[in-house]
Structures are given as structure tokens and as C-alpha cells.
Amino acid sequence: MVNIVLFGKPGAGKGTQASFLKKKYSLIHISTGDLFRYNIKNKTELGKLAKSFMDKGDLVPDQVTIKMLEDEVKRNTNTNGFLFDGFPRTKSQAEALDNFLNEKKMEIKATISLEADDNILIKRLLERGKSSKRIDDQNEVKIINRFKEYNKKTAPLKAYYKDQNKFYTVSGVGSLDIVTNRLVEVIDRL
Ligand code: ADP
Q1: Average pLDDT, whole number, for the chain?
Q2: What spacing in Å lies between the alpha carbon of 15 and ligand 1's midpoint?
Q3: Mean pLDDT, range 56-65, rounded to an integer
Q4: I want to staple 12 with a disulfide (CB 3.0 to 4.6 A). Which of 8, 21, 25, 66 is the partner?
């Protein structure tokens, strides 16, 4: 079983690449952003709560996010592995994930970071906002707030995974195929 975390700033291409990788390696793709958006669309209590944070570009509180993630993993027991996209985003989430997987005799095999400069990411997100209608992608102030959240709360996870010798970096700049190939090279060597 291979469990992989796709790591990177908003707009780095985690979701796009995950859709290729999940097919290639028969993994279950779990995107916390997608799960929140599904709940928002279906007007659940969780969705209402998440929306109030997401629309501002703030992270949703850990407790809620961790519970949602664990429920989703439990729903999918029969798999080659999981591809986590957008989770963990805080140290508490990373610790909760390690503990939770350990209890199930599983572990994270690798965390792969997709990297690109902020100016490239801002352009991509504003472009995505035009078609996706995502409120958090349509406004540069909200995008910059997400980068701030990332720098403050998520970037420290690099050290967390480096300490476990599980951290890999890949450039997220280039055509979709080129970036996929970079990721595949890392995964095939694990
Ligand atoms: P992006 O990577 O472009 O920000 P996502 O779909 O991954 O897009 O996330 C959108 C929003 O959903 C985040 O800005 C945040 O509000 C919320 N979110 C997603 N994952 C998490 C998480 N692990 N912890 C807290 N909030 C999250």
C-alpha cells in the first residue's frame, strides 16, 4: 500500500495531477477542498461551517477537517493506497494523520511538493476563478490570504516530513505531461 501526500501552495496543480496519478497507480484520491465543496453544494452543516472560512481564504478549523478526512479514509478500506490532496495543511493535521494511519498499520510513504512562484500561481488561480466560479479564486486579496495561511501554517510541514525522510520536491512549472512525468519519476523510485 502506498499513501502519498501531494503538497504545495494553492494553484500548484495538486488536483490536476492527482487525477492522472490516481488512475496510473489505482489510488483513492482524497481532496479536502473537494469534500468541503461537495458539502457546500449539498448545504450540509459541515458545508455551511466550511464556507464561512473558505470564502475568506482561511483554513477550516483542524478538528472539523481531521474528522472529515478520517471518515473518508474509513469509507474506502479496499485500496492500493491513498493520494491525499490538500491535507494535511497544519502540523496538528499531519500528526493526526500519522496517528490515525499507524492505528490502521498504514503510513505515509512520501510527501511530494509541487513548486511554483507566487506570480505564476496568482495568474493560474485568477484564470481558474473565471471558469470554476470559486469565490476564493476570483479575488487577489483572498488568494494572497491563502498564501499567507500556507506560509504560516502549512510550510512548516516541510520540516515535519523532511525529518522523517519523506519529503520530495518537483517543479510544477511546465506542461501538464511534463509535470506528471516528474511526479511519476519520484513515485516509481519509492
Ligand atoms: P487550493 O489548494 O487551491 O487552496 P483547495 O480546494 O485544496 O484549493 O482548498 C480550498 C479551501 O478549502 C482552502 O482555502 C481552505 O479554506 C479549505 N481547506 C481545504 N483543505 C483544508 C485543510 N486540510 N485544512 C483546512 N482547510 C482546508
Answers
A1: 97
A2: 11
A3: 97
A4: 8
